[in-house]
Amino acid sequence: MEIGVTEAVQKHVSRHVVPPKPISQRKLDFEHSRPRWLREMAAEAIGVFFYVYPGIASQASFFLNGTEPVFGSLFQIGWAYAIGIAFAIITCGSTSGGHFNPAITICFAVWQGFPWSKVPRYIFAQIFGSFLAGLLLVGQYYPQLSALAAELRAKGVSPNSLGGPGSVLCSFPGPTQTNYGYLFFIEFFVDSFIGIVIWSVLDPANPFIVPASAPFVIGLAYANMVWGFANVTISTNLARDLGTRIVAAIFYGGDAFGDYSAISILVNVPATLFATLVYEIILRDSFAIIAKGHNVHEE
């Protein structure tokens, strides 16, 4: 029976799938000649672009239409980032490892033996991908964003404030959110939550995750924190925030790098290191990894 079912499935697939074209030696030679480091950097930049672009596009739709529910909500924005992250991992993860976050790259170097020599270029590529996403979005929404910036300036309000064009691109606290210690701890624990989820998803001993589900679980971890704390102001990713913040500074003023920017840019790294430290000390079970054949004892 098994053989019969298998043959039936194979015949069904062969009827509906176009046979692949044979791969030429010329194509193999071309692919082999590409510098590995350049492919990895491009994949990290493209992946971050895929993650950031849908998120800020959703924010643009929301803010430019006066936060009218028909044009979006925090729920929609959370899903935009979640699905964008899933697409980023699916599209580019097989080429570069799918870090898309400087803090994750650093944690891989600390805990998993990722070469430290690659860390600076991965981080540069990640920030560059976010910068490109912000630049493209400003180009696409330039008339609307410029009009909103002019409207806010006429009221004596900086475009780089909550509800302004700058906040479409990156995080800015509300007028009453002046307690930076509070904002620091919110960002720290939000990023720690995401970090633990990512590290657990990447644990080969975790029986609840299969490779096909990993991109969506990681995306949902981000969305979960957007839904819970976006009203408090969070950034969640150094590259995502810094790349688009540079764009905000170029178009809407240097005050994009105000006092809060240090929290939104830098807290992600120590928070994720803390999260992965907790996982490595308390939750990691290396014997289970060895028993499942995913690793070996060094002796």
Automatic annotation (TrEMBL):
GO terms for cellular component: plasma membrane. The chain crosses the membrane at residues 42-64, 70-90, 122-142, 182-202, 209-230, 260-282. It is found in: Membrane. It holds the Pfam family MIP. It comes from the Eukaryota. InterPro entries: Aquaporin-like, MIP, MIP/Aquaporin. The keyword Transmembrane applies. SUPFAM superfamilies: Aquaporin-like (SSF81338). It is a multi-pass membrane protein. The keyword Transport applies. One of its GO terms (molecular function) is glycerol channel activity. Keywords: Membrane, Transmembrane, Transmembrane helix, Transport. Belongs to the MIP/aquaporin (TC 1.A.8) family. This is Aquaporin-like protein. It comes from Mollisia scopiformis (Conifer needle endophyte fungus).
